[in-house]
DNA sequence: TGACGATGTAATAAAATTGTCACGGATTTG
DNA sequence: CAAATCCGTGACAATTTTATTACATCGTCA
């Protein structure tokens, strides 16, 4: 699907110019003439990027920027500010308000498009990050981060691989030997009971005092990560 | 300091013409006769701009362009392609390979100079700059400046590229080997542990005594720049 | 040329992680 | 019920990995 760009600009001429260039480059464009409309559309249409004029009726661009950043729906939405003057002060304020980049008018179409592409490229990785989850446990493979509910969970390398293996095979029971093969590697030899210790460490890191334990012990068989019922908050 | 321009061109007559015009306009000029030499000089002399002929011995202009873009040292170096005909196909390919602008031969000296100035202006500190940010860390690529909060942060060239790479891939963990490839270049060999030292230098430059460290060490995996809970003023 | 900044390496200190054990409670078996 | 297993747990020492420091080199710039 073509990326959707929200252009917030009150001057018709510039609006036309932007629409022309963006659509030629295979973007879809929606327009807002003032700050209020911008906030509304940003929430409703969920654009992939916002081109935001500095000077606007009703709400200044910088204020729109701030509000977009504050709202959970639109936080993280890439924003490029358009401003008439290249004043350093404005620039700093724009960036502080949360803009991702900044282009001064007059601008060349190619320059603007380059910025648009750059910003979109930058904000892409977050989208396709590989994550595993089970109930309120979330693991981000690329970032190497693990969370349970609202808090970050720190895991050692082995615990990380162990949990990852469970997450990739939820509900299934693994014997100690199977886990050693899968997590430690088929060629290393360690005591099977070592698995117990790491299961323990994983549990300790994962479970706060009151929370329930997602790891099920199957006596004389091994361990499993239960796909919990309390999915998706 | 006068801007340094690398002219890559195998026809002596055009070379002379270019040098004459450029030097008259207060640019310094270095010459390369073929693609190999171009890459070498671009890396060694660090020119501010490259004028790159399309047809070259050894390596085509487009290939040179691509390689310049791929190498960490020369990525971001402004490139203007010179092409014999104004064929649309060539132009598209040139721009796709990463050229900033292109000029068709024959060209008038004044036209060429106008393009040169335009491209340089765009990549100069005075002009707009692409910025990368993470929390209160702001990097201005074109100006080659880094700030944290209110203060300027001085980084060596390697630390700059290192931080840039992290900023362009926030949250993701990179092994020492990956960082060497991305920041040092895939062809140079340095000890992986060297990365540690540069991480240290980067941290020292970035973190005042009380501030928290945005760079996360992931044991047995590498390092990551954490996309922190955004703090927009 | 000499001061200077930047860089890569090696050596050493400091942390974090890991595999094992031993003990004791819990569960199953006979 | 007693024996036999099995699992949870805390403590440790060894090992691995990272942080930090010091140093030699190299190119730049006055």
Quick recap:
Chains A, B: This protein is a positive regulator for the phosphate regulon. Transcription of this operon is positively regulated by PhoB and PhoR when phosphate is limited. Two copies of one chain form a homodimer. By secondary structure, chain A is an alpha/beta fold.
CATH class of the largest domain in chain A: Alpha Beta
CATH superfamily of the largest domain in chain A: Response regulator
Say what the CATH topology of the largest domain in chain A is: Rossmann fold
Structural class of chain A: alpha/beta
The domain tally of chain A reads: 2
Structure description:
The structure is a homodimer of 233-residue chains. By secondary structure, chain A is an alpha/beta fold. In chain A, helix 2 (35-45) packs parallel to helix 3, helix 6 crosses helix 7 and helix 6 (157-168) crosses helix 8. The first copy, chain A, has helices at 12-24, 35-45, 61-70, 88-96, 109-123, 157-168, 176-184, 193-206, and strands spanning 4-8, 28-32, 49-53, 79-83, 101-104, 131-134, 137-140, 145-148, 151-153, 173-174, 215-218, 222-225. In chain A, strands 2-1-3-4-5 form a five-stranded parallel β-sheet, sandwiched between helices. The model of chain A is unreliable at 229-233 (pLDDT under 50). In chain A, 40% of the residues lie in helices and 21% in strands. Chain A folds into two domains: 4-123, Response regulator (Rossmann fold), CATH 3.40.50; 131-225, Arc Repressor Mutant, subunit A (Orthogonal Bundle), CATH 1.10.10.10. Chain A has eight helices and twelve strands. The interface between A and B is medium-sized, with 29 and 23 residues. The structure holds a DNA duplex (30 and 30 nucleotides).
């Amino acid at each position: 699907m073509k990326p959707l760009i929200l252009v917030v600009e009150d001057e018709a001429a510039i609006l036309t110019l932007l629409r022309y260039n963006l659509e030629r480059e295979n973007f879809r464009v929606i327009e807002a003439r003032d700050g209020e409309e911008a906030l509304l559309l940003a929430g409703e249409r969920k654009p992939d990027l916002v081109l935001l004029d500095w000077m606007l009726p009703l709400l200044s661009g910088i204020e729109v920027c701030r509000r977009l950043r504050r709202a959970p729906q639109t936080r993280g939405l890439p924003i490029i500010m358009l401003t008439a003057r290249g004043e350093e002060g404005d620039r700093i304020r724009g960036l502080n308000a949360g803009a991702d980049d900044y282009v001064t008018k007059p601008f060349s179409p190619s320059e603007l498009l380059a910025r648009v592409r750059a910003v979109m490229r930058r904000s892409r990785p977050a989208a396709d990050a590989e994550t595993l989850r089970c109930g309120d446990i979330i693991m981000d493979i690329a970032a190497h981060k693990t969370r349970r509910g609202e808090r970050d969970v720190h895991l050692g390398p082995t615990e990380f691989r162990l949990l990852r293996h469970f997450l990739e095979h939820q509900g299934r029971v693994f014997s100690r030997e199977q886990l050693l093969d899968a997590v430690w590697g088929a060629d290393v030899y360690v005591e099977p009971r070592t698995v117990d210790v790491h299961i323990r460490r994983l549990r300790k890191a994962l479970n706060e005092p009151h929370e329930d334990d997602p790891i099920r012990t199957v006596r004389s068989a091994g361990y499993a990560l239960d796909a919990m019922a309390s999915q998706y908050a």
